[in-house]
């Protein structure tokens, strides 16, 4: 926000009369206070005020209509066959607004390469709501560009604030790296530090010039990333082609051990004296040139020794994604952006967009604390006597945990005649997914738990119930989900489990689409949940023990 400026009186000062006053009666009344006529600022004036003090690139964004989408064959970029095959496998036939805007910026001809010898690629800042498809907006271009690599180097770093988000983004990368030689790794602290080191860098005691990497793409939380920068031999960021900061405002508003300045410093080649250098380059404390590194510096006397030691600028490209991009000048400066562009997916789909859903569909929202969400799922599948249900989660990790929890609960609560549930995720092979779908269609499985990404390619005619375990932020995605039930004139029910802090935004989304009146609020009495509480508590303990053993196997 722009700080308010003090109002200055620009009216003419009162001048003494040049003619002498004859009497008090004939004197003009004194103007005690200048007359101000308050007026409402126009929309254009408000925009001009907002732009005051902002960099030109931030004040003039590329505006993207959030309702825009394009089919894959119509988007103005050429995608590799492996990416097209992966899109087909996942059931992706069109790209959302943020994807149609960002993909051409990253994949146009002059940037569709690993490195540039002519200067830096421009950085891009993207403002788009969570759930708008922004993850694929950087996953697809990164995979497309890095898939041409020959030597495995750490060339893409994605920083996220939480472990759950890391798991969610890894699911997307794993899905699109199929058919390529690219390797994806994570740093979250969920496994031991030594185990992460062995997964990320070569297990060598020798310090290697230019470092080493077993992965091309690394997804990390900031705290764990800093630990490895400071303590892992041969771990280097100097070959990065992409630095992605997802949930940027959230990360920039917290210090996280001053992670940003540490990462930016680590992007540059280390200055180290080498007594046994192959040439004079690298001696006397000057940087060691690495023929595969995108970052270069001049030699001691600024005279090129070979063609690879000619001074070049870094090819690093920073991509920032956030629901609300910061306008704090200090924070913007700290990012050290180069030739940035700002893409803004503004608002939500137009208010006049109306979605038609079957008249046989009944929709309910259940507002609850986040800790009670699994308990509500158990209530739905047990107390409401459903035959088949499809449950949507935001990530494969969330789907995995929920499926395990339900399985533990069934063993404890109902050893006989238990309700059968399974996850349906990209972690499973194609054959496993096919078998699970067959069991579900045959009625052997009652509940299928899936993330949005994999569910897009799911071949199902209809189910009795849809459960939104994690609610969507776009009406279009909501319609796609609940549209899995009440097909072909059959009745169906959709339950949306809404966290207390999400209720306002979920209702606003429904209201903008003219659909709020169709979704009834459902309250569940504690007496309905009480019989399950003991088994639920035991199930949580069993899940915790299982996850701990999975991370630290004996």
UniProtKB/TrEMBL annotation:
Residues 115-343 form the Helicase ATP-binding domain. Signal peptide: none annotated. Residues 8-25 have a biased composition (Polar residues). Residues 360-528 form the Helicase C-terminal domain. Keywords: ATP-binding, Helicase, Hydrolase, Nucleotide-binding, RNA-binding. InterPro entries: DEAD/DEAH_box_helicase_dom, Helicase_ATP-bd, Helicase_C-like, P-loop_NTPase, RNA-helicase_DEAD-box_CS. GO terms for molecular function: ATP binding; hydrolase activity; RNA binding; RNA helicase activity. Residues 1-25 are annotated as: Disordered. RNA helicase. PANTHER family: RNA HELICASE. Belongs to the DEAD box helicase family. This is ATP-dependent RNA helicase. The lineage of its organism: Eukaryota, Fungi, Fungi incertae sedis, Mucoromycota, Glomeromycotina.
């Amino acid at each position: 926000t722009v700080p308010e400026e003090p109002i200055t009186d620009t009216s003419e000062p009162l001048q003494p009369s040049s003619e002498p006053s004859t009497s008090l009666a004939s004197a003009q009344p004194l103007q005690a206070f200048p007359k101000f006529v308050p007026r409402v600022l126009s929309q254009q004036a408000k925009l001009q005020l907002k732009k005051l003090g902002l960099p030109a690139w931030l004040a003039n964004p590329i505006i993207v209509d959030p309702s825009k989408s394009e089919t894959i064959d119509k988007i103005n970029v050429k995608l590799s066959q492996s990416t097209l095959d992966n899109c087909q496998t996942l059931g992706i036939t069109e790209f959302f607004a943020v994807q149609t805007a960002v993909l051409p910026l990253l994949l146009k001809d002059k940037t569709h390469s690993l490195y540039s010898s002519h200067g830096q690629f421009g950085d891009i800042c993207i403002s788009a709501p969570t759930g708008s498809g922004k993850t694929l907006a950087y996953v697809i271009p990164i995979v497309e560009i890095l898939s041409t690599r020959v030597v495995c180097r750490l060339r893409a770093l994605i920083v996220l604030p939480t472990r759950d988000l890391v798991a969610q983004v890894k699911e997307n990368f794993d899905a699109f790296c199929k058919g390529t030689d690219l390797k994806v790794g994570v740093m979250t602290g969920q496994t031991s530090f030594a185990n992460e080191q062995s997964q990320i860098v070569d297990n060598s005691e020798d310090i290697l010039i230019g470092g080493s990497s077993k992965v091309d793409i690394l997804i990390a939380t900031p705290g764990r990333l800093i630990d490895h920068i400071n303590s892992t031999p041969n771990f280097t960021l100097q070959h990065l082609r992409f630095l992605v900061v997802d949930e940027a405002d959230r990360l920039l508003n917290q210090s996280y051990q001053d992670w940003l300045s540490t990462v930016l410093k680590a992007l540059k080649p280390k200055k180290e004296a080498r007594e046994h250098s192959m040439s004079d380059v690298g001696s006397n404390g000057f940087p060691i040139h690495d023929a595969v590194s995108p970052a270069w510096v001049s030699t001691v006397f600024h005279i090129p020794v070979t063609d690879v030691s000619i001074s070049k600028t870094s090819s690093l490209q920073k991509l920032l994604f956030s629901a609300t991009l910061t306008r704090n000048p200090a924070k913007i400066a700290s990012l050290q952006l180069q030739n940035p562009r700002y893409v803004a997916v503004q608002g939500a789909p137009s208010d006049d967009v109306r979605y038609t859903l079957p008249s046989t569909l009944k929709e309910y929202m259940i507002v609850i604390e986040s800790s009670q969400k699994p308990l509500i799922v158990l209530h739905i599948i047990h107390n409401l006597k459903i035959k088949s249900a499809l449950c949507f989660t935001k990530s494969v990790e969330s789907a995995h945990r929920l499926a395990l929890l339900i399985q533990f609960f069934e063993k404890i609560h109902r050893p006989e005649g238990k309700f059968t549930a399974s996850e349906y995720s990209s972690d499973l092979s194609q054959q496993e997914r096919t078998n699970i779908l067959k069991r579900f269609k045959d009625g052997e499985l009652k509940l299928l738990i899936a993330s949005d990404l994999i569910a897009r390619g799911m071949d199902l005619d209809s189910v009795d119930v849809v459960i939104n375990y994690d609610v969507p932020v776009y009406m279009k995605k909501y319609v796609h989900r609940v549209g899995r039930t009440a097909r072909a004139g059959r009745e169906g029910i959709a339950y949306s489990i809404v966290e207390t802090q999400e209720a306002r935004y979920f209702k606003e989304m429904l209201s903008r689409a003219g659909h709020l009146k169709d979704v009834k609020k459902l309250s569940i009495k504690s007496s309905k949940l009480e019989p399950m509480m003991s088994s639920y508590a035991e199930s949580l303990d069993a899940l915790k023990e299982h996850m701990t053993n999975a991370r630290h196997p004996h």
